[in-house]
Design a protein that fits this description.
about 25% strand, Rossmann fold, about 725 residues, 4 domains
Length: about 725
């Protein structure tokens, strides 16, 4: 039943009368996932793979762990707890007290003297082993019998510490997320823009820096990073003026100006060109791993001011907006949406400005700043509180990095040790046991991010994939993706059915539980090079958006994204399984599109079915994508007449434009025929209700999927002309 519009708007419906007789039943984009860096849990549009790398990164270093790490960690924890036990001194020996098995408390007496065992490890370069230095530190018992709580609190703090996990660690390795590989594939196939939503497993915050005033009384403004995560932290203490000093600072900066914690993935800043006469200054955003003699300037903002009335006001020139994911509970549901804080859109790709100490009435008529009295040597005379003392309220020429950023790729060492990447993403029965994190992120963390994309007015996309999540292991989340596509009606979801190492029966079984023309599934998994240089196994959702966008580029959305012309898979070394024709047949019967390895043709997408069970035109990907394109274009056309006069002139003009567009689709081989009805359905009653109606009938072009060629062998002498 069609929805009744209660407020001004546009409703588009489709009626599927294209039932296919029972003939052989053989039958841009958004990506959600973890990234190395970038803003967390907010949709961001990137327009090239280089843009993606700058914003979200590619590879990162992660720890490897021994297979028996649970035993090693348990032993380290037990040892640490033993060392925290209170000791008594008996005849010059230290004896650990034993816990009362009944309540887990130590038999200590308030006010008595006890000892902590302190073990210090030092690496011996000669023996290549750690030497242990043991000492005992005296303490006075706080309360009789309650030392249990102190020990438990300390153990909780130690549970995820490097100290405990270090014995289980192996050499680090570089790693890459599926999101990054999918983005690269998408842009290599001709994608022009990609909506990326970074999924994270814990709380993330941006880095901040306080830029001091010339007079030292507080900060002139605060700089914040657009990206979020503790990897941004590369500074502590006051900023430095490197033109006045080249001193190093322990743990922060070296004599050559390089930051101890500087890297290609974080940034630093520099305030320079401070001119007290014109009241202007510059901000340079630099890469975190540069040095004084070779500055890598990413962005430069010159001629900035602190005057809100100036066109060069710092917040106006750089931007002061930041976004936040909000969860709102209504009577019936939970709504997730993005709210924007700040006034000026961000021009910078790296930073935004907060808490500016504004100076109004900045300039005199001659363009110079107001100046108070100064000493003969030009120094601050001490009275720097007058409005005229602009020179002393400007930011100080200095540079620094960022601090206070929060958020880790992995929430704990345990999560890092158990992180599922590539072929380790295998089938786990949904809802059984503890939630298994995929690439370090709990699947439930994806849910608000999927929900956010329900806002069609805010996010215009025509396909979505969530690499790493599968129907077999993450049914609640993949159901949300399917529901999102159906609810929006303007995109197709590429769904992965199973994890690596699955059997054909598993694939078919998971496909049978889905029924939607707005979703499509492909199998098997594929092997390709990651940016680490290693060969890795990836699900089909990593490369299929690239196949779709390639089809759009060389043909149109209504052409099948399959076959040797448009379905050839680039950059893939091999498939997880080479499918026989019987396997392809079995998969296609269940609406799963096989990725085949064909002799002489390479790896090819060999099907284009949606997951719709009913045999209509909409059980094909090209027809669903045709409808997505038609509805998007017609909706945009209809938006132009909303709130206009509903008279014959407008209706005729709308029909003429609509017919012209549909005729162009016919010429571009998307439709066999069409019919539009406007005047007849806009009756006086319809017009009096402030409605406008239009009916569009179309016959989508069908693609060839089954070819039958008959050869007939005859006897010699048969006359083919008779």
């Amino acid at each position: 039943m069609a929805e009744v519009l209660l407020s001004p708007g546009i409703q588009i419906t489709e009626t599927d009368r294209s039932f296919v007789p029972a003939r052989p039943l053989v039958a841009g984009a958004a990506i959600i996932g973890p990234t190395v860096k970038g803003p967390a849990e907010v949709p961001v549009v990137v327009t090239s793979y280089g843009d993606y790398q700058r914003m979200f990164g590619t590879t990162f270093m992660m720890n490897r762990y021994r297979e028996d790490y649970p035993d090693i960690v348990a032993l380290a924890l037990a040892k640490a707890e033993g060392e925290m036990a209170p000791y008594e001194k008996q005849d010059d020996e230290y004896v650990a007290l034993e816990k009362n098995p009944a309540d887990g408390c130590y038999p200590i007496v308030s006010g008595s003297t006890y000892y902590h065992k302190i073990v210090t490890k030092t690496f011996n370069t000669s023996s290549c082993e750690y030497d242990e230095d043991v000492r005992y530190e005296e303490f006075t018992a706080p309360n009789s019998g309650t030392y249990k709580e102190e020990v438990e609190q300390k153990m909780e703090e130690l549970k995820d510490s490097d100290e405990i996990w270090e014995p289980a660690m192996l050499q680090q390795k570089s790693q890459e997320f599926l999101t990054s590989i999918a983005a690269k594939s998408y842009f290599e196939q001709g994608g022009e823009s990609l909506l990326v939503v970074r999924a994270v497993d814990n709380e993330f915050k941006s880095g901040r820096a306080l830029v001091p005033k010339v007079n030292g009384s507080g900060s002139a403004f605060e700089i914040r990073t657009i990206s979020e995560g503790e990897y941004l932290n590369n500074w502590s203490g006051d900023p430095q003026d490197r033109s006045e000093t080249t001193e190093s600072r322990s743990g922060v900066i070296r004599e050559d100006g390089s930051l101890i914690s500087g890297s290609k993935n974080n940034i630093r800043w520099e305030v320079a060109d401070v001119d007290p006469d014109t009241g202007t200054f510059s901000i340079y955003v630099r890469r975190g791993d540069d040095v004084d003699y070779d500055k890598n300037i990413l962005e430069a903002f010159t001629g900035l001011t602190l005057d809100p009335d100036s066109t060069n006001y710092i917040s106006r020139r750089i931007g002061d907006q930041w976004q936040e994911l909000v969860e709102e509970q209504t009577d019936d549901d939970v709504i997730n949406y993005i709210t924007v804080h700040g006034n000026y859109p961000n021009i910078s790709k790296y930073i935004y400005i907060k808490d500016v100490s504004d100076i109004y009435g900045y300039f005199l008529a001659d363009g110079f700043t107001r100046r108070g009295s100064v000493a003969d040597d030009g120094s601050d005379p001490g009275d720097c509180t007058l409005p005229d003392d602009v020179a002393y309220l400007l930011p100080k020429a200095c540079e620094g990095g960022f601090f206070d950023a929060e958020g880790k790729i992995f929430s704990s060492h345990k999560d890092e040790a158990e992180a599922k990447f590539f072929e380790d993403i295998q089938n786990i029965e949904s809802g059984v046991g503890e939630e298994v994190k995929i690439q370090g992120v709990a699947p439930s963390k994806y849910e608000p991010l999927i929900s956010v994309l329900e806002n069609q007015d805010e996010y215009e996309i025509n396909m979505i994939s969530v690499p790493g999540l599968t129907v077999a292991s993450n049914t609640p989340q993949t159901d949300m993706v399917n529901s999102l596509a159906q609810k929006r009606g303007d995109l197709i979801a590429v769904i992965d059915l199973v994890g690596f190492g699955s059997k054909i029966n598993d694939v078919q079984q998971k496909a049978m539980g889905l029924n939607s023309s707005y979703s499509a599934a492909y199998w098997p998994w594929l092997q390709m090079y990651s940016s680490t240089g290693r060969l890795e196994w990836v699900p089909a959702s990593v490369i299929i958006p690239g196949i779709y966008v390639y089809t759009d580029r060389v043909a149109a959305p209504w052409f099948a994204p399959a076959g040797m012309i448009r379905g050839s898979v680039q950059g893939v070394i091999q498939t997880e399984r080479k499918l026989l024709k019987q396997h392809r047949d079995d998969l296609y019967k269940k609406n799963v599109n096989p990725i085949a390895t064909l002799p002489g043709s390479g790896i090819t997408v060999y099907g284009q079915k949606t997951l719709q069970k009913k045999a209509t035109a909409l059980d094909r990907v090209n027809v669903r994508r045709l409808m997505i394109e038609l509805k998007r274009t017609v909706k945009n056309m209809a938006s132009g007449i909303l709130f206009e006069q509903n008279d014959a002139q407008l209706r005729n003009a709308f029909k003429a434009n609509l017919d012209q567009y549909l005729e162009s689709v016919v010429k571009r081989r998307g439709l066999y025929a069409y019919k539009t009805v406007v005047e007849e359905v806009n009756t006086p009653d319809v017009i009096d209700r402030n409605e406008f109606r239009c009916q569009i009938y179309i016959q989508p072009t069908k693609v060839i999927e089954f070819i039958y060629i008959d050869f007939t062998i005859t006897n010699t002498g048969v006359d083919f002309n008779n």
